[in-house]
């Protein structure tokens, strides 16, 4: 999904949440550690920061399943 010229001039907003994913205004392209890329054309994406997601790098809310000791 191409961005309009006005969209490319504005900075992307990323929201950091305590014990949660990074919320990023989309569309986005994410480069993984192995050099591969994944893309999403959604208006907002949740990026996993705990690495528990079965859909990594996208958050699937697996961080909520943490058991407390």
UniProtKB/TrEMBL annotation:
Keyword Protein biosynthesis in annotation: no
Keywords on record: 2Fe-2S, Iron, Iron-sulfur, Metal-binding
SMART domains: ZnF_CDGSH
Name of the protein described by the UniProt record: CDGSH iron-sulfur domain-containing protein
InterPro entries: FeS-contain_CDGSH-typ, MitoNEET_CISD
Highest taxon of source: Bacteria
Any Pfam family the entry gives: zf-CDGSH
Native source organism of the sequence: Streptomyces doebereineriae
Lineage of the organism: Bacteria, Bacillati, Actinomycetota, Actinomycetes, Kitasatosporales
Limits of the Iron-binding zinc finger CDGSH type domain: 25-69
């Amino acid at each position: 999904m191409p961005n309009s010229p006005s969209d490319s001039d504005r900075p992307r907003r990323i929201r950091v949440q305590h014990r949660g994913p990074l919320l990023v205004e989309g569309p986005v392209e994410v480069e993984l550690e192995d050099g591969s890329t994944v893309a999403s054309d959604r208006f907002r994406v949740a990026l996993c920061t705990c690495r528990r997601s079965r859909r990594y790098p996208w958050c699937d809310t697996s961080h909520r399943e943490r058991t407390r000791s």
